[in-house]
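re the bet — no i am not wrong, look at it urself. input seq straight from the record:
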Amino acid sequence: MFDTLPGFRDFPPEACSRRNHLFRVFRTVARAFDFREFDAPILEPLDLYVEKSGEEIVGQLFHFEDKGDRRVALRPELTPSLARMVAARANSIAKPVKWFNVGEHFRYERPQRGRGRSFYQFNADLLGEPGVLADAELISLLVAILETLGLSESLFSVRLSDRASWVLFLDSLGITEKQRPGVLDAIDKSGRRKPEQTEEALEKASPGKGAELLEQVNEIKSIDTMDALAKRLEKCGEAGRSRSSEWSRLLTLLEAHGAGSCIRIDLSIVRGLAYYTGFVYEVFETTGEGRALAGGGRYDHLIGKLSGGPDMPAAGFAIGDMTLSDCLEGNGLLPTYVSAPDLFVVGGNGQEKETLSIVSRVRRAGYSASYSLKQSAFGKQFREAGKSGARYALVIGEEEVAEDSVTIKDLGSGGEKRVASKSLVSQLEGLDEEGGLPGRE
């Protein structure tokens, strides 16, 4: 007996249906925002990820040498592939680039609830536009997806922060460019550590300043209004005032998008990835375990770094399927799995050809149709039809064949009517309009 590998999942029909529900919403909402779907190889050169994150990333990847002695890896994320694709088309591609992807990714890490070694992820990226209009477009897309899935603004919040503001704050506190990554890393992890551990990390990053820096960092992290943020940025001179204007404009744009009510200023959000350069954000549940559902931000230098070409303004976010599915299920927002066909075709002995002709016709018209795959009496076929969950049976017996007709039988009420075979599809369309059939997609 073989089991799935640790951190991997099977998707029987009911689980696949729930997963595909997420995918449909992702695609429908992204297309409404005029994002275009793209994809990239699931297997990439290992160096593509090392260039982005350093050699330490290797321990988190599924990687191996292929038969051509190339170091390759299953993709843990899509941004490096996106950078490669866009850079290769930089001179011909129309900007801004608004692309999205729904795909499988892999990370070799300890499996736990909401985190596996194989997972699906929705990515949306907007490249070639440096202004906050792009940030607002992405955050609004993210909010629209969650709302379309049924999550009201009382169930989640978008915590908004800004790496550029943190750079200004740290500069004003005397933190050097060399010390900055270590300080930002300590700030990013401070919510999961004891204060003394954060102070120790800050001291390591900026010797002699740990205690004082912790006090200042906590003060900045406590800012949760635009007024308080503007006052703090005012201390950073003209650059701070300019950044304050960008904050105000972004919040105004999000209000105009109808997404403002779920936005929270939260400067504790730094996001650990060093390539972020501007506004960053994470979405959290406001109920239950308060887990992160999505995150993203601006990364204006990453495309140039990965491609070896010039920098390109870029921003994006990702939503993982596992935590999101848990959240939706916990709030009763995942649709009930229904495997029933629209129709079940019941044929009499000797009417196999006519039965299959009707099955084929209604399928071509867009309805799902099933029938018994073994010769059996009408009674057994009707029992099979009942078990299938179909609302209607199409009956083809001797009389129907003689009259070139079909009997439509309501398996719930028992009511039935006989219709000419040539008008069957139009009769079914009438049932669609009356709500008697799920209808065609």
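see?? Residues 114 and 323 are 5 Å apart (CA to CA). told u. also The domain at 13-330 is CATH 3.30.930.10 (BirA Bifunctional Protein; domain 2). so pay up
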